[in-house]
């Protein structure tokens, strides 16, 4: 691994994103709009539904968006020949992986900073814990989404196929992460399944930060998310072969 | 200087379950433009990928610039153009080159020179996705020229280019070869054969001829005025008979 190359890749990915206004809007603006929509839906209802659902959304968006964007962009690199070219150059696999992780981690930081500012500042989401930690969770979550997206891109031939992994790998995590039904009251089997899905931990961490000022549970959840992200990156590295068929 | 940039003995490549290259022996000299010609599907790209070190399923000895193909030290010394233009469509020509220059650790000023070499100065700030097919493949070629590689492996770099431009590119390949670079250029059309110093004619994963254009025509029993396509046909029919 070579920092010059890693940073070159991160900078290049960011330039590409900047060029693509629609994707940038999807990454940065759409989460804010959806959170506002959710807040509006519950506005006339009694209770604190927005406080209950908001943190889950803050955890979901970085994950989903980064999963989609990474799976499609790395698929393009694989099918367009640029990955083959880079692998024939003095680029290490880790340069490629971390380059992407850094670029998308940065975007995720901006994204969640915007979403958090909106939720807390304008929509009155109550957050007891430190707000910066919320952003840290979002970044870990984004890196996790990137890592998974990178991994699945190895199994898709077209961008359409890449997007198809979303219902298979992402939606079950959304359903079981505690957003719809608290994880504790899920049927036993589903509870166990939700225990092995990484998004559950990200949502737990976010929910904890809204309720409590203690952070040790958050760090534990964060460690789980980070471990999954590292495992995802390792799997992704396994799919980057210098020599291919 | 090294005489042969590439030395290959008993090269066999299996892709999927099929053997695609069947026990090839050949050399590629430094300082010459070597043409790898043969119909589509005969194994040209597979051979080039092997030299660059990105092909799996390789047996035999493949020595490139004195090292086994695929050695990390070679990654700075080979310029490779894949068959599809491998540049980023959403970046400009200049941005693409700046990126690859950073990956290679090459001085940024060199990007200017290679853009000039492929005649894209007027399009340097244009996004690659909006260029014509020929301009895109030249952008891809420019990347391969970065860092003054000792071996250039160019997979069908002149396909679909306008004849004037092709002329310019072949002149450039020869200039590079005169400077000591080993240039390997593939093509599935035979009409560029005469521009090469030396030819490797390939069919179904074996070489049917190896030599200068004149030597190959002589081997086929044709005179100098004949073209390589005729020689190719004569040799193939002679082997079949
Ligand atoms: N990824 C692959 N997996 C399996 N076989 C392949 C693959 N790519 C090419 N081939 C086969 O290898 C043979 C040689 O292909 P290639 O080297 O691309 O030929 P050329 O470049 O001369 O057109 C062809 O028969 C092709 O079908
Ligand atoms: Mg080919």
Automatic annotation (TrEMBL), chain A:
It holds the Pfam family ABC2_membrane. One of its GO terms (cellular component) is ATP-binding cassette (ABC) transporter complex. Residues 18-243 form the ABC transmembrane type-2 domain. Belongs to the ABC-2 integral membrane protein family. It comes from the Bacteria. GO terms for molecular function: ABC-type transporter activity. It is a multi-pass membrane protein. Its main location: membrane. One of its GO terms (biological process) is response to antibiotic. It is found in: Cell membrane. The chain crosses the membrane at residues 24-42, 54-75, 96-120, 132-156, 168-186, 218-240. PROSITE patterns: ABC_TM2 (PS51012). This is Transport permease protein. Keywords: Antibiotic resistance, Cell membrane, Membrane, Transmembrane, Transmembrane helix, Transport. It comes from Nocardioides antri.
From TrEMBL, chain B:
Pfam families: ABC_tran (PF00005). Signal peptide: none annotated. GO terms for molecular function: ATP binding; ATP hydrolysis activity. Residues 6-229 form the ABC transporter domain. Coiled coil: none annotated. Keywords: ATP-binding, Nucleotide-binding. InterPro entries: AAA+_ATPase (IPR003593), ABC_transporter-like_ATP-bd (IPR003439), ABC_transporter-like_CS (IPR017871), P-loop_NTPase (IPR027417). This is ABC transporter ATP-binding protein. It comes from Nocardioides antri.
